[in-house]
Amino acid sequence: MLSRIRSAAILDASIGRRSSSFRSSLISTPITRNKVMSSKTDFKQDPHQLLVIPGPIEVTDEVLYANAHPSVSHMSAKFAAVFGESIRMTREVVRTTTAQPFLISGSGTLGWDQVSANLVEPGENALVLNAGYFGDGIADCLQTYGAQVDQLHADFGGTVDIAQVEQALRSKKYKVVTITHVDTSTGVLSDPQPVADAVKRVSPETLVVLDAVCAVASEEIRMDDWGIDVVISASQKGLGAPPGLSIVIASEKAMKVFDARSKPVSAFYASWKRWLPIMKAYEGRSAAYFATPPVNLIHAYHESLSQITKASPSLDERLKLHRETSSRIKLAAKELGLSQLPVHPEIAANGMTALWCPDGVKSSELLPAFLQKGVVVAGGLGTRKENYFRIGHMGITAINPERGDVDRIVNVLREVISAATSKR
Q1: How would you classify the pairing of strands 100-105 and 125-130?
Q2: SS3 (DSSP) at 33
Q3: What gap in Å lies between CA 224 and CA 284, rounded to an integer?
Q4: Any idea what the Cα angle at residue 210 is, between residues 208 and 216, rounded to 5°?
Q5: Which of 40, 74, 134, 262 has the fewest CB atoms within 10 Å of its CB?
Q6: What mean pLDDT is reported for the chain?
Q7: Are 202 and 151 in contact (CB under 8 A)?
């Protein structure tokens, strides 16, 4: 018995020494963690794997530093000024002077709820132009809130024919028509301008809703000029901030439709009745409360918007650089014998590239190979998810050649595909 007690004591002491040694090693081993910096110009984020999925994306050091802003009251005058300016700069990115932005904690998906709950009343008709997985999503959301949904499905990798859109608009009265600007599942770029033009000609009372989560700040959007009534986005893609902010911009026409609704909004958190006074108060530099905004994320978003709207390169130059980066990556893929999911080059997104895997190779085999080389890419979505993979090239990856992100993507793509095909 005593020997067992002594053995247990020796074992406990041994574990204690090992635990102490482990704790000491944690303390003594250098950890790649940034020290407290005196200013954002001193701050450099830790080395990490290159994140090139179609969102979240790499963010600048200044944005990440802003996200580490000391905690402040969401009711403070200083925060109200930051929030208010963020609202104003959001308008600039989508080229509108009069639309109402809503900046609310949530993912881009919350934008679907906002449109479905605030603009479409139960029993009203909605037309969804479906170019992929995210078309399915917004259709499902609209139906959840009671809309009668018709869908025009594009062939896989294609876009909906505008003649079909016009025919559908003539067939019945639609409250909204929705377009996925870039379907993140396929990399297909749909042109919203012809759709908006068709609505003006055939059914001018219909609202044009643009799901631009994977398009804002990487694709051209001219909300006022094109007649877009709602733009849905999120913070973590072309807008270059961490995830967690749902961004919806509603035109004056859309807000009038909202004001004229005959039934109460069928949502609580997503209700513009609750959020509109908040947005107007903050833009007027006066804080108001319904639900706590993501204070630190708003600071990060503000910093990113400042870079997009007030710094070099300009917004137009950024869009041009996205196009150039996209062309370079797509050309490298073509030279490797890879085909894009979009069936025509002109309908391929500029902020991401979706590529079919080589014959006999699954995306679940390619992703770990990229990861071993320090590059994070995304697999497919939906029923064909094993057959293709996706590379994101938005924000600083696309516009800052000094980082070398594009060179690295191209080099690693060549290495991974060469290794995969050589094993067949």
Answers
A1: unpaired
A2: coil
A3: 23
A4: 145
A5: 262
A6: 92
A7: no
- Using one digit for the tens of pLDDT, what is the confidence trace for 145-174? 999 999 999 999 999 999 999 999 999 999
End-to-end CA distance of the chain: 64
User: How many whole angstroms separate alpha carbon 115 and alpha carbon 345?
Assistant: 31
At residue 38, the pLDDT reads 58
> Among residues 117, 118, 112, 138, which one has the least CA distance to residue 127?
138
Helix H or strand E segment including 321: helix 315-335
Beta bridge partners of 51: 376
Q: Could you tell me whether strands 375-376 and 50-51 are parallel, antiparallel, or unpaired per DSSP bridges? A: parallel
Averaged pLDDT for residues 363-370: 98
Distance CA 176, CA 173 (A): 9
pLDDT at residue 21 is higher than 90: no
- 403: which DSSP letter? G
Number of Cβ atoms within 10 Å of the Cβ of 3: 7
Does the pTM exceed 0.85? yes
Digit-coded pLDDT (tens) for 335-360: 999 999 999 999 999 999 999 999 99
Upper half-sphere CA count for residue 321 (Cβ side, 13 Å): 20
Residues shown for the chain: 424
- Give the strand order in the sheet containing 388-392: 352-356, 388-392, 378-379
**291-326: pLDDT as tens digits:** 999 999 999 999 999 999 999 999 999 999 999 999
Q: What is the mean pLDDT of residues 98-120?
A: 98
Is 91 marked within a binding site?
Answer: no
Exposed e or buried b for every residue in 394-419, given b needs 16+ CB within 10 A? bbbbbbeeeeebbebbbebbeebbee
Integer CA distances (angstroms), 349 to 97, 282, 353, in order: 26, 34, 7
Pairing mode of beta strands 207-211, 176-180: parallel
Instruction: Give the Cα separation of 158 and 187 in Å (integer).
Output: 10
